[in-house]
Amino acid sequence: MKTKLLTISLLLVISLCANCQSQFKLCKEFYSALPDSLTNKIINSLDKLLISIDNSQLDTTLVDTKDKELNRNFFSHLKGVDEKDTIPHYFQAQLINRYPVEDNQYLLTMSYQKEEEIGRIFTFLVNNQKTNITFANPLKYNTKFWKTTTIGTATYYYPDTIDTKRAELFNQKNISMARNLNLPVRNWDIYMCRNFQEALQLQGCMYDFSRIGVYNSGYIMDPKTLFTCMNDEDFSHDVLHIYASQIRERPQRNANGECGLAYYWGNAYHARTVGKSPELDELVTALQYYLKSHEEVSLLELFEKSPNILAEYGYPWPIHINRIISGIICREVEKQKGTEGINELLKCGRGNDNLFKTTEKLIGINRDNFNEEVYKLIFIQ
User: Fold this and answer.
1) pTM over 0.85, yes/no
2) Among 51, 86, 132, 134, which residue's beta carbon has the most beta carbons within 10 A?
3) What are the helix (H) ranges across the chain?
4) What is d(CA 337, CA 290) in angstroms, rounded to the nearest whole number?
5) Domains in the chain, CATH or no CATH each
6) pLDDT over 90, % of the chain
7) What are 4-35's pLDDT values in tens digits?
């Protein structure tokens, strides 16, 4: 056993040293039960893949062609995983594990660390094909025995059960949002995840220092793969953002305006204290209760500072008060100006100054009359 381990280690060190750009090293205890020739082939292919990622020129010949777009996006997103605070190659990549799982398939685990500080841990799926080695996101392997149900425009993947009524609601919203914006209706693959960490783990990310403790969130892997927020079948909030990106210029998203529309046409995205993500009408009711017991409050100040004021009503941060108010404004824009007004709002550009210029033009709301006019909209639905 020790002799085989030493032989493999020497062969791999020689192979890696032959490539001066080598992107990783082997952990001291690395062991492979595979033939030396296959082990060496996998190691060299992995090195080429990581080099291509680092150079922003993904070598697609090394990426599995099944679920091609999913895999290409997954590996493209790995650029910069060795960075910390914009310091390139801060974390050093290290191959720490590899083992067979099925015929000609293996799981391979990389650790990115500096001394005792761990940055990230990723696991890839390796396919030993007749002519070459290819790599894939392990998502399909990790969910191989999950159930599948298609409801309208969405195919759901889940380990036990789903709320079909909630899924039907998402389908209705998906179709409605696309048609409202005069865009083609898109189809989605939706993986049911209990929390954000599970969404990462399904894709092979076992640890990420930049996402420690994050749980109340979902995940998007373009072009059509969604990972739910807290096991909620209705992912309409982020789907609105995807559609909206086709309307406005990508770098010029108005966060408050667009998120307000996502609250209005979709939902608040984040789950409340218990249950699924709330919709705008439910949140407006909570805001009404708050305002009735805090008559001195400034709506403009709530909008611009967005304090965590609704926690006592069961809607804690990251449900944002300014996005609720913006959703109410979006509803009035749609009422008065239709989808043309909504499109203009989506294109208004970054920041509240641009948002107020647009709302003043469309429905007469500006900073000076904000408290009075928005108060009316909150209580006169």
Assistant:
1) yes
2) 134
3) 2-17, 36-54, 68-76, 139-142, 164-180, 196-202, 236-244, 255-261, 280-293, 299-305, 321-346, 351-363, 370-379
4) 29
5) 2-142 (3.10.450), 147-234 (no CATH), 249-381 (no CATH)
6) 82
7) 443 344 344 434 444 445 788 888 777 777 88
